[in-house]
Write a structure and sequence with these properties.
This protein has 389 residues and is of the alpha/beta class. The protein contains 14 helices and 18 strands. The chain is globular and about 60 Å long. The protein starts with 6 loop residues before the first helix and ends with a strand.
Length: 389
């Protein structure tokens, strides 16, 4: 796999080669409310990023804030200034160095690396997943996420899943209270029928339970209500996951938080912890280690799930290609035009698509991650715009 030259080879300095000449940031305010066990997002702020070297543009996206429509774009952008003039391999290694030196957050590091690897593939006129040696090309399931506590609102979301042909796999956010979660699962199961795989995600909402035996009783009740698998029911250690798996019968477990960031997840992973392992966008930190972790999970015959960070734009196709390339069980990072359609209005080329069976497919491999955008239109639709020259 190609991950760029070493830090010493690149020397992290500007040189006479073609380098990054422009970084353009587009702030998109998404107004759709999202409900979790830990609180409510009334709105959220996404950045669409364009990194240009020569005539090539690499695209990425990051969720930078929640409930902060006045997000300070200029302040956030200051960390990107050292990328100007660096070649793409140099920039990749600079970002990795900043991340592992604890100067950059895992979300910022991951998002910029996505754009840089898109740029690298375009510069070399090859799909990035081919540069990485990823062999998977088979369509995989997309999983639709429902984030509603109210049952009627949840069913309305399930109706959207049906319209989008995304009912083979559905994820339901849970709230850490059986009096809320059990009726919610039952209602969604009754509406979708017996063939939908339902993944419940309490976001560690059952951490108030005193021991694993009590947690197992609750999870079995949710399983009886119609839940096939559960992601992060509580704050669990590696030993807790292994012990819990023995207590919940046929219910599948899907560790998430313990796999973050990727370089720590590699050390934590054991196939005895669960049936599926979630790699969560905005939390992996570094793409080399992300691919290593994904490969390790698959080599141990465990299911791989690619999660989401409420993404709505350019990063979705990246995570979909990661999922396909590694043969994941499903991918949650799907475009969400029902929440914000700026991306759909501006995209001019994309490598992935959803088919009528609710699967994500590679419709055509293009260089990099295959994304092109109409920036004139994007600039007009964005809530804020900033260019770093």
């Amino acid at each position: 796999m190609l991950f760029g030259a070493s830090l010493s080879q690149c020397a992290i300095k500007k040189n006479q080669q073609v380098g990054i000449k422009s970084i353009r940031l587009y702030l998109i305010n998404v107004q759709k409310e999202r409900n979790f066990s830990h609180g409510t997002w009334h709105n959220r702020q996404h950045l669409f990023l364009a990194l240009q070297s020569g005539n090539h543009i690499g695209w990425s996206e990051i969720l930078v804030a929640k409930n902060k429509p006045d997000f300070d774009l200029a302040a956030w952008s200051q960390q990107l200034l050292p990328l100007q003039g660096l070649t793409t391999p140099q920039a990749i290694n600079y970002v990795r160095h900043q991340y592992f030196s604890n100067n950059w957050t895992k979300g910022d590091s991951e998002a910029i690396q996505i754009g840089l690897y898109d740029l690298l593939g375009k510069e070399q006129n090859k799909p990035t997943i081919e540069l990485w040696g990823l062999k998977g090309r088979t369509p995989i399931a997309g999983i639709f996420t429902i984030l509603e506590k109210d049952i009627d609102k949840a069913i309305n979301q399930a109706k959207i899943a049906k319209i989008q042909n995304l009912t083979s796999h559905v994820k339901v956010k849970l709230f850490g209270k059986t009096e809320v979660d059990v009726p919610l699962i039952k209602a969604i199961r009754n509406y979708l029928g017996p063939n939908t795989f339902i993944l419940g995600d309490p976001n560690r909402g059952y951490k108030h339970l005193k021991d694993l035996d009590q947690l197992a009783i609750v999870l079995k009740e949710l399983h009886t209500a119609g839940m096939n698998a559960v992601e992060d029911p509580a704050d669990l250690s590696k030993a807790d996951w292994i012990a819990l798996k023995k207590k919940v019968g046929k219910l599948a477990l899907a560790p998430d938080k313990i796999m973050r960031p990727a370089h720590k997840g590699i050390q934590q992973f054991s196939p005895d912890m669960g049936s599926y392992f979630n790699l969560h966008p905005n939390q992996m930190g570094s793409l080399k280690e992300l691919n290593t972790l994904a490969s390790t999970i698959r080599k141990n015959d465990c299911g791989l799930m690619i999660g989401d960070s409420s993404l709505v734009g350019p990063a979705c196709t990246f995570w979909q290609q990661i999922a396909i390339g590694h043969g994941a069980s499903w991918v949650e990072a799907l475009e969400k035009p029902q929440e914000n359609d700026v991306f759909q209005q501006c995209v001019t080329a994309i490598s992935t698509a959803n088919n009528e069976q609710g699967q994500v497919v590679l419709k055509k491999l293009r260089s990099g991650f295959g994304l092109a955008m109409n920036e004139v239109k994007l600039k007009a639709l964005a809530d804020k715009y900033l260019e770093i020259l």
